[in-house]
Write a structure and sequence with these properties.
A five-stranded parallel β-sheet has the order 2-1-3-4-5, sandwiched between helices. Strand 3, helix 3 and strand 4 form a beta-alpha-beta unit. By secondary structure, the chain is α/β, with parallel strands linked by helices. The model has no long low-confidence stretch (mean pLDDT about 85). The protein has four domains: about 110 residues, Response regulator (Rossmann fold), CATH 3.40.50; about 160 residues, Rossmann fold (3-Layer(aba) Sandwich), CATH 3.40.50; about 90 residues, Orthogonal Bundle (Helicase, Ruva Protein, domain 3), CATH 1.10.8; about 60 residues, Orthogonal Bundle (Arc Repressor Mutant, subunit A). About 45% of the residues lie in helices and about 10% in strands. Keywords: Activator, ATP-binding, DNA-binding, Nucleotide-binding, Phosphoprotein, Transcription, Transcription regulation, Two-component regulatory system. It holds the Pfam family AAA_lid_14. This is Two component, sigma54 specific, transcriptional regulator, Fis family. InterPro entries: AAA+_ATPase (IPR003593), AAA_lid_NorR (IPR058031), CheY-like_superfamily (IPR011006), Homeodomain-like_sf (IPR009057), HTH_Fis (IPR002197), P-loop_NTPase (IPR027417), Sig_transdc_resp-reg_receiver (IPR001789), Sigma_54_int (IPR002078).
């Protein structure tokens, strides 16, 4: 956690610094806006700006936006001056902290910044296998390519890799290659010298240098222009970069994590992605399953988001009703974890009873999420699988797996295809398992059947 304090904080600079450092933050001071911008351009970077309310917050926000430096800003001022607080928020501050600083409030602000996107919540076996591989490769410096649909959690896994690496105490820097215009991305990655192009008012260190010693995440790398891919390849191979307008190479020591929601092998065949760069990036490939392919994670994540947004809105977290759980399990979640998070945020706001019921789980426009007969069957099966997975302590893996497969098959009325989809395994694997159980003398339901005494009411 890197904290940049701008100004004197009304004479409370030492106290605020001490509190922040006790909470594990590294602290840099800047007397005013010019010095703060110099720090931000230099590559030291910051995860949070804590700015004296007497500074020109509007100007600082404008300068950071103009130079595409994305960092949250909180204002600090003596006492509880309502006018100063309102002015700071209007100027672009995310929060106003009264001085003298309260240790718990400072700790909460730092925690909100550092933990915002770092929660790794999973229970499904499909996701557990990905995490296991991530833990194995995290200590190395090998490049990692993370693939998966949009919203499936690629940045969360990237941060997890960094946190488990030997570079965990160094910067984690991310850049979205799809969000920055092509003519600016080179400067964002490699930096530029003063006067290198129109608008280059000062030397600016790029993401490579800012991440020096740590990890650089290149988000949606498939969107990068082929010409720039060549320069990226050289940087990875030779561990040096050239600033735009620079006259000498700059050495860097970083670990690269790249993400994509596209099939890069297909992009290579289409001529939009360099094959040699793919080989450099794809030392290890972590393939994130879509949320619909890991049903045991749905309710776990839903409850997690309820906790987060109930706290954010000052309300008590409510349990999710049986009907609500079935509805969540039945949805396809084409937007993956991001869509589920937004849905549960809405549900927290719309709930009025003792539980979050199906009526509170709605689309963004307020319309209900429809669930057809086929989805209801899938919901019952997924719910059975999720419930069964909670009752595993004291049993062998083989026993738990057999019961989970057979219970899921029961609730699908013997439909092998539905059961395989819910379990996240291939139909061939399922049939092999069922043949084994039959040889062991275990009753296996046929299509349209359920085992005696186990059919749903």
């Amino acid at each position: 956690m890197r904290l940049l304090i701008v100004g004197t904080l009304g004479g409370q600079l030492t106290t605020a610094t001490k509190i922040a450092m006790e909470r594990g933050a590294s602290v840099t001071h800047a007397p005013g806006t010019p010095e703060a911008m110099k720090v931000l351009r230099s590559g030291q970077g910051a995860d949070l700006l804590m700015v004296d309310v007497n500074e020109d917050i509007g100007q600082l926000v404008e300068l950071t936006e103009r130079e595409r430096i994305h960092v949250p800003l909180v204002a600090c001022g003596l006492g509880t001056d309502a006018r100063a607080a309102v002015s700071a928020i209007r100027a672009g501050a995310k929060e106003y902290i009264p001085l003298p600083p309260d240790p718990e409030l400072i700790a909460a602000v730092l925690a909100a910044v550092t933990e915002e996107r770092e929660d790794l919540i999973y229970r499904d076996a499909a996701m557990a296998s990905v995490i296991k591989l991530a833990e194995q490769v995290a200590p190395s410096d090998a490049s990692v390519l993370i693939t998966g649909e949009s919203g499936s959690g690629k940045e969360v896994i990237s941060r997890f890799l960094h946190s488990k690496s030997n570079r965990a105490d160094k910067p984690f820097i991310s850049i979205n290659c799809a969000a920055i215009p092509e003519h600016l991305l080179e400067s964002e990655l490699f930096g530029h010298e003063k006067g290198a192009f129109t608008g280059a008012v000062a030397r600016r260190v790029g993401k490579f240098e800012e991440a020096n010693g740590g990890t650089l995440m290149l988000d949606e790398i498939s969107e990068m222009d082929v010409r720039l891919q060549a320069k990226l390849l050289r940087a990875i191979q030779e561990r040096v970069i050239d600033r735009v307008g620079g006259s000498r190479p700059v050495p860097v020591d970083i670990r690269i994590i790249a993400t994509s929601n596209r099939d890069l092998a297909e992009e290579v065949r289409a001529g939009t992605f360099r094959e040699d760069l793919l080989y450099r990036l794809n030392v290890v490939n972590l393939k994130l399953p879509a949320l619909r392919e890991r049903p045991a994670d749905i309710l776990e994540l839903a409850s997690h988001f309820v906790e987060i947004y109930a706290k954010a809105n000052g309300t008590k977290p409510l349990p999710i009703s049986q009907e609500g759980r079935q509805l969540l399990l039945a949805n396809q979640w084409k937007g993956n974890v991001r869509e589920l998070e937004n849905t549960m945020h809405r549900a927290v706001l719309l709930s009025s009873g003792a539980e979050i019921d199906a009526d509170a789980i709605r689309m963004p426009d307020g319309s209900p999420i429809a669930m057809g007969a086929g989805q209801q069957t899938a919901a019952r099966a997924a719910h059975a699988a999720e419930a069964a997975s909670r009752n595993m302590v004291g049993r062998t893996v083989a026993d738990v797996e057999r019961d989970l497969i057979l219970d899921t098959l029961d609730h699908c009325l013997g439909n092998r295809t539905h059961a395989a989809k819910i379990l996240g395994i291939s139909i061939r694997t399922l049939r092999n398992k069922l043949n084994l159980y039959t040889k062991e003398g275990v009753e296996v339901p046929g299509p349209g059947e359920a085992r005696a005494g186990t059919a749903d009411a």
